[in-house]
């Protein structure tokens, strides 16, 4: 279900915290959580409710590898003993996801795309303390649906 931007009146698919048109934050959302992807529309679904896909340009990927440092491992070990969530590792995951998604969007942009559909993440470990985060999707060009087709 799309939402209407209070700033410009245009519609954006639900799941995005910023308006595609004017980049204003969605009401009652955490604007700081939005990923900077150079205006690139990205969705995990194969289509957009508000846009028609005109061209499929192929798969795009973003990869990043982060090392867990000694201090982060120390605090995670304490959390493991006493229980609870590891804020240090959660922050690393958020940073890694954002980096991988931004890299994927830049590669899609280089192909001439303005959107990515079918986006997915994959996580794995490399060695003893390295985390690899991969992001992939299909680069496409998409245009807003006309008023008569939107509904």
Automatic annotation (TrEMBL):
**Which segments of the protein form a coiled coil according to its record?**
none
- Alphabetic keyword roster: Metal-binding, Zinc, Zinc-finger
Instruction: Identify a single GO molecular function assigned to this protein.
Output: zinc ion binding
Against Pfam families, the record matches this protein to:
YbjQ_1 (PF01906)
User: Could you tell me which InterPro entries the record lists for this protein?
Assistant: UPF0145_dom_sf, UPF0145_YbjQ-like, Znf_RanBP2
Boundaries of every RanBP2-type domain copy:
1-28
**Regions that span the bilayer:** none
Task: Provide the family line.
Answer: Belongs to the UPF0145 family.
Q: Which PANTHER family match?
A: UPF0145 PROTEIN YBJQ
Matching entries from HAMAP family are given as: UPF0145
Q: What is this protein called?
A: UPF0145 protein K227x_28680
> What is the native source organism of this protein?
Rubripirellula lacrimiformis
């Amino acid at each position: 279900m799309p939402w209407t931007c209070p700033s410009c009146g245009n519609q954006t698919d639900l799941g995005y915290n910023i308006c595609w048109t004017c980049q204003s934050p969605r009401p009652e959302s955490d604007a700081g959580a939005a990923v900077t992807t150079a205006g690139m529309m990205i969705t995990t679904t194969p289509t957009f409710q508000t846009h028609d896909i005109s061209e499929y340009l192929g798969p795009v990927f973003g990869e990043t590898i982060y090392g867990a440092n000694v201090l982060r491992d120390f605090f995670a070990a304490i959390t493991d003993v006493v229980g609870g969530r590891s804020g240090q590792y959660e922050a690393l995951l958020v940073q890694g996801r954002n980096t991988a998604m931004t890299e994927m969007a830049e590669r899609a942009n280089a192909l001439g795309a303005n959107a990515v559909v079918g986006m997915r993440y994959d996580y794995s470990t490399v060695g003893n303390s390295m985390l690899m985060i991969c992001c992939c999707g299909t680069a496409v060009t998409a245009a807003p649906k006309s008023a008569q087709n939107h509904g």
